Amino acid sequence: MPEDILYSIRNLTVEYGTRAGPVRAVDNLSLDIRRGEILGLVGESGCGKSTIGKALMRLHEVPARITAGELWFDGRNLMELPAGKMPEIRGAEIGMVFQDPMTSLDPVESILDHLTETVLTHEPKTSGAAAKKRAEELVERLGIRRERLKEYPHQMSGGMRQRVMISLALALRAKLVIADEPTTSLDVIVEAKILDLLKELQKEFNLTILLITHNIGVVAEVADRVAVMYAARLAEVGTAEEVFANPKHPYTQGLLKSVPNIELNSAELYKMGGQPPSLLHPPKGCRFHPRCPLVMDICSKEEPEFEPVIGDHLASCWLYQEHEGRGSSERHEVHNA
Amino acid sequence: MPKNPVETPEILPEGASWEVELNRVGFVRRLLMARRWYGADWWFVAIGGVAVVAFIIVALFPGLFAPYSPFVQVGPPFLAPEAHVDMPVLIVPKKSSVKSLQDLAVPPDANRPQISVVEGYPTAGALNTESQKIDEQIKDEPRGLRLRPVIDRYPSLQETLHAVVDGQDNASVVQESQFKSVAASFPSLREAAPIQGGAFSAGGFILGTNDIGQDVLSRLLWGTRIALTIGFSSSIVSLLVGVPLGLLAGFGGGLFDRLLSLLMDSLYAFPGLILAIAITAVLGPSMLNIIVAISVLYVPTYYRIVRGQTLSVKEEVYVEAARSIGARRLEILSQYVFPNVIQSVAIIFSVNVADAILTGAGLSFLGLGLPPTMADWGIDLARGQTFIQTAWWMITFPGLAILMVVLAFTLMGEGLMEIYNPKLRER
């Protein structure tokens, strides 16, 4: 594993056991998270992006199960660790920020207790006073006055609670922070503040952040690289500039076109046809082909590889891959379309 | 670490003034202020709470409040509340310095004191018993005084009293009511002291006496101790068993949960008193067995509530968040699930105590509870039932006592439930 990669997901498959049979929420997915970057993971609801977030910490509980794959974190394969060792990594090396700050804090515990408990769980020898001092410094850095530490979650606003959640993830200087829709339930002003804060913290602490969201605007604002997910698989991965300026996968293109834009002149916003596929019976071939405006014969027959299109920019689409019944001229046309 | 702490000015949201106010006052003032928000529920809790504290104090120190021993005969049987006991009294001349029967004792060589009584009344018997008792007490004293009164019997009250006025006798012993009726015609005589004669205590019986002359009030007060002991201990036992089982079943799930829930539900399906009767019938009547029987009855109540709450709490995001900071299963159970579950238990406990007291009294009433010698409300109820036509007070007051205790605990419990957990109301 190259030194600049902090977390390498290799062929990860996560299944949910249901009455109708196993549902693959993440299907044979590989993704690298580089040190010090903010990687945005975008996709529609139900495409499996939150499942990846939990899988990275092996937080799954029945009925979800990681059925295959390797999770290389900082030189160790987490899948090979016994389950009893995982709590040592959770919180200490990988932190998590949840979607809804209204419910992700324990209502009967003060903010201070939340923070000191996190510290003491991993460093039982720390004195209470030292843990408190650390908590105070941390929340002040995140913009909460230290006097408010003794308060309970219900006494704080949504934005403040999300700051507390972030401080929990940072309390032990986690190398990787998984932020699962951290701003979805906040209003736009607080959202902007939290995103700015995340960016600042990332620089200050040299954090690596996996930002899971369905909001492509959030990703555009903060992410260094973007991974686009569709139906349990990756559709496209690339630097934020590349993906937004020159999207390769038709799904990404559609996604970007359907974002409301103030400069947009057309009367109606672009609507992607069709529905996301059922993960219980995913379509054969490319999973996007029933909705793809550029669909070809091969798309419904065989699945495209997930491979580089240009340099670091990867996509899984037959448009950029050699196959029977298609010449290089066709590719050129599409490129200019 | 803080390089540029972001300023968060304290801007209070609208209507937050009371919250600030609340932070500035002490706990007691806060409790009183709560009256404004909770209205009737606050009063329920306050009244119930005061009554519960009062009952607990009585249960701890019944001897301080009870005028008599609850186990011995202290008065005539079937004495109505506030009815006066007609005691034999010692009548002496006004100028005499005698204060009690003992003062009449004389040295062995002197003339024995002469005391007049009315023929055909039990006063002579009482006098005899009492003076024998006094002689027994003073016989070893160095002065060698002896009482041994000579009892002169007269056919009528007038003659008996005249014998004292004339100086034939030193004193007289007549029924108090008799003396009261003629006191005006004997201005030179006065009542010195009641003669107990070993049978009754002097004084009134506020709630009357029962069929064997025990004081109803004293038995009532001592009964508080037994009622609360049964109520609290059985509730605590079922809490100690039911809460951990509910936590483990709800948190762990699986086969253990299924089997335990099946067992608890079948226990719950039994009519409560019938199950308690069955258990005490097998174990035999004793305090411990009653507590065991009632505990078994209420374990499912705690189990079901705790299990249900655990099931919902463990799905909360903050529990997952706790796992994401590296908390282990045991830590999650003890620090995240338990504190969020226990609140509803504390409230149910109070209502449960009331229920257990009622069941305990029911068992004693049916004769399956405590041995009949004990001062217990259920036993008193059962005994009073026999004499409900002639002595209404025997069954009424224990019944009222049960009502009051149950009402106090229920008021407090239900009020607290309304305040803390309005969702439980539907139960």
Any overview of this molecule?
The complex is a heterodimer of chains A (337) and B (427). Chain A is of the alpha/beta class and 337 residues long. Chain A has a domain at 256-277 and 284-336. In chain A, 29% of the residues lie in helices and 24% in strands. Chain A has helices at 49-55, 86-89, 111-122, 128-141, 158-170, 188-205, 216-222, 240-245, 250-257, 328-336, and strands at 5-18, 21-34, 38-42, 64-73, 76-77, 94-97, 176-180, 208-213, 225-230, 233-239, 307-310, 313-315. In chain A, the strands form two sheets. An eight-stranded mixed sheet of chain A has the order 6-7-8-3-9-10-12-11, with helices on both faces. The radius of gyration of chain A is 21 Å and the shape is globular. In chain A, 42% of the residues are buried. Mean pLDDT of chain A is 87; it is low at 327-337. Chain B is an alpha/beta fold and 427 residues long. Chain B folds into two domains: 36-69 and 208-426, MetI-like (MetI-like fold, Orthogonal Bundle), CATH 1.10.3720.10; 88-194, Periplasmic binding protein-like II (D-Maltodextrin-Binding Protein, domain 2). Chain B is built from 15 helices and five strands. Chain B has helices at residues 17-24, 27-38, 40-60, 62-65, 123-138, 157-165, 176-182, 216-252, 254-269, 272-283, 287-313, 317-324, 329-365, 377-386, 392-420; strands spanning 88-93, 114-118, 150-154, 171-175, 189-194. In chain B, strands 3-2-4-1-5 form a five-stranded mixed sheet, with helices on both faces. Chain B starts with 16 loop residues before the first helix and ends in a 7-residue tail after the last helix. Classes of the chains: A alpha/beta (337), B alpha/beta (427). The A-B interface holds A 57, 59, 87-92, 95-96, 98-100, 103-109, 117-118, 121-122, 137-138, 140-145, 160, 165, 168-169, 171, 204 and B 1-3, 5-8, 10, 316-318, 320-328, 331, 335-336, 339-340, 343.
